[in-house]
Specification:
The complex is a heterodimer of chains A (about 300) and B (about 270).
Chain A: H1 2-36, E1 42-44, E2 47-50, H2 61-69, H3 87-122, H4 124-137, H5 142-153, E3 157-158, E4 161-162, H6 165-189, H7 194-202, H8 206-245, H9 251-259, H10 266-292
Antiparallel strand pairs in A: 1-2, 3-4
Helix pairs in contact in A: 2-10, 3-4, 3-6, 3-8, 3-10, 4-6, 5-6, 5-8, 6-8, 8-9, 8-10, 9-10
Chain B: E1 5-16, E2 19-31, E3 36-40, H1 47-54, E4 62-67, E5 70-71, H2 72-77, E6 81-84, H3 96-106, H4 111-124, H5 140-151, E7 158-162, H6 170-187, E8 190-195, H7 198-204, E9 207-212, E10 217-223, H8 237-250, H9 258-268
Helix pairs in contact in B: 3-4, 3-5, 7-8, 8-9
The chains are: A mainly alpha (about 300), B alpha/beta (about 270).
Chain lengths: ~300, ~270
């Protein structure tokens, strides 16, 4: 048992080392290309084949690092962090807000997706009626949806709670996140083999106990990859929704602000890197869940 | 006292796209309390279908199936029988002990009572040291023993077994047969046992029910008048006589009386 845990730990460290190595390789490729290619890129017959490498297009990584230490000028919705907040402070704070909204969106998406999956699993009529719309829901362009949602939602309230711009952002994140959960969980709930289903029938287990003791544990294998997609989708959905609804304070608006700074793209890249870190954090959170559920990984695989 | 299983005029017809398939026609079968009955026959003879009718996994098209004098459905809801399948069908995310506890958990037995019963059953199938393992760590034979322990958890008066040793190697299989005979004797449960193997059916059973396909039906019932089974039973002339009788019956010839056949064998020696 101890040996197994140690091996698992080493494997985790090994993977972490790979991630770091990947980042270093990416950085080297960036700087290498910048050093090698001409500042105006490579054009053939007026068509640019390779991108520009000047500082406005591709800042040095060191410039991105330096800009993080700069003092932050007041931007939309920036709240004072300390006496002399830096860009890094501002970005961390913005990422924190976005992460909170994305987490709420993921939670809503998880609940809605799970309820839909259980309903579709229980009633084949519901599956035939709902599944096409579940799929269709993901083809609606988000950019079109966000302003509409904002317009419908604003002004609603219930028992002291009010629909705000943040609510709209969270709902958009949930709208993207529920889909992989619903589809993955539905597949997982249907995954137990005939012998397992027969066993629960002959023991007169009933629908609820079969769900809790057989179908849900067997579904974990399918749910974890779905959660990974859902977590990433929730982050992307939050950022897109922030921008299109105009919700200040998060990393989305920060990216928008910094993209309008001319001459210095280092800030923009710093903000984009912040968004990327959010995606990694979301994926890491799912990995923690995955490790906690290790006993369900081989669900029902033996005969 | 009511019989463990009482089947009268049972038929099962499956409707398929290419027309109706008569899986079973007009089956009558009674299994007494504590009696061990095997169902044997080639693929498609309906032996598994018959077992599934008794277990209420299928409902007969015509006829009746009574278990302990109740409808098969009521007997299933009352958990009058345990069921073991060809695959052990254990839940890999639970320990061996907690797999054996599963039926008790499903029917609301308290934690400590469940634990005690599971330990008792694991000892019965000789796996008392493996309670904390997970099923994938066990061999096929050990997994099947866990499945049998699980089927026995609620002290059923009837065990339904669908080729439970079908996937095991010959050595393991014979050892499991010996254990099953012992367990059936100790628990006093009646057993309906589906198998492809003639020696297995003869070794285990008081009666071997011979079936034939198209349409699935019972063609013969061979009484096996062997006493208490031991490993020596497998070398007994009576055992060979019964094997021959079942083989003849499977070929469609009348099996005759095994006792008479045995006398013939002895006088020829």
């Amino acid at each position: 048992m101890t040996a197994g845990v140690t091996r698992r730990g080493l494997g985790f460290l090994g993977r972490a080392a790979l991630v770091v190595a990947g980042l270093v390789a990416l950085g080297l490729a960036w700087e290498g290309y910048k050093a090698w290619a001409p500042a105006d890129g490579v054009s053939v017959g007026g068509v640019r084949l390779l991108p520009r490498t000047n500082d406005a297009a591709m800042p040095h990584l060191s410039a991105v690092w330096d800009v993080l230490q700069e003092e932050q000028v007041a931007t939309t919705g920036a709240i004072s962090f300390g006496p002399r907040p830096t860009v890094l402070h501002g970005l961390v704070e913005a990422c924190g807000h976005t992460l909170g909204w994305a987490a709420m969106g993921l939670l809503i998406g998880l609940v809605v997706g799970a309820l839909l999956a259980v309903l579709m699993d229980a009633l084949s009529l519901a599956e035939r009626a709902l599944l096409p719309y579940v799929v269709l829901s993901q083809t609606v362009p988000l950019i079109a949806l966000t302003p509409m949602l904002s317009r419908w939602g604003n002004g609603w309230g219930l028992l002291g709670w009010h629909w705000t711009k943040v609510t709209s952002v969270e709902v958009i994140a949930a709208y993207l996140a529920f889909f992989p959960v619903a589809v993955g969980l539905l597949r997982g709930l249907k995954s137990p083999s005939v012998v397992h289903r027969d066993y629960f029938t002959v023991t007169a287990a009933g629908w609820w106990r079969t769900l809790v003791l057989l179908r849900l544990p067997a579904a974990v294998r399918h749910l974890v990859p779905a959660l990974r997609l859902a977590a990433a989708a929730a982050v992307v959905g939050t950022i897109v929704a922030e921008i299109s609804i105009g919700q200040p304070g998060g990393i989305g608006m920060r990216i928008l602000d910094y993209s309008q700074v001319t001459g210095n793209s280092a800030k923009l890249y710093a903000a984009v890197a912040g968004a990327a870190v959010l995606g990694l954090l979301a994926a890491a959170a799912v990995t923690v869940v995955d490790l906690a559920l290790w006993r369900y990984h081989r669900a029902g695989a033996s005969s | 006292m009511t019989a463990a299983v009482e089947i009268t005029g049972a038929s099962k017809t499956f409707t398929t796209r290419s027309g109706p398939v008569h899986a079973l026609t007009d089956v009558d079968l009674t299994v007494g309390r504590g009696e061990f009955v095997s169902l044997i026959g080639p693929s498609g003879c309906g032996k598994s279908t018959l077992l599934r009718l008794i277990g209420d996994l299928l409902q007969p098209t015509t006829g009746t199936v009574l278990v302990n004098g109740k409808s098969a459905r009521q007997a299933r809801l009352d958990q009058d029988y345990g069921f073991a399948f060809q695959q052990a069908g254990l839940l890999d995310w639970r320990t061996v002990r907690s797999n054996v506890e599963l039926p008790l958990q499903l029917h609301g037995v308290g934690r400590s009572a469940r634990r005690a019963r599971a330990e008792e059953l694991l000892a019965l199938v000789g796996l008392e040291d493996f309670g904390g393992h997970r099923p994938p760590q066990l061999s096929g034979g050990m997994q099947q023993r866990v499945a049998i322990a699980r089927a026995l958890a609620e002290s059923p008066t009837l065990l339904l077994m669908d080729e439970p040793f079908g996937a095991l190697d010959e050595m393991t299989r014979e050892r499991m047969q010996g254990e099953l005979v012992r367990i059936a004797g100790e628990t006093g449960a009646a057993v309906v046992f589906v198998t492809h193997s003639i020696p297995e059916a003869v070794f285990l059973s008081h009666r071997v029910v011979v079936m034939s396909p198209r349409p699935g039906r019972i063609t013969d019932v061979v009484e096996v008048p062997l006493g208490a089974r031991t490993e020596d039973t497998r070398e007994d002339p009576g055992f060979f006589a019964a094997v021959t009788a079942v083989r003849e019956a499977l070929r469609g010839r009348p099996a005759g009386d095994v006792g008479q056949r045995l006398k013939d064998v002895r006088s020829a020696l």
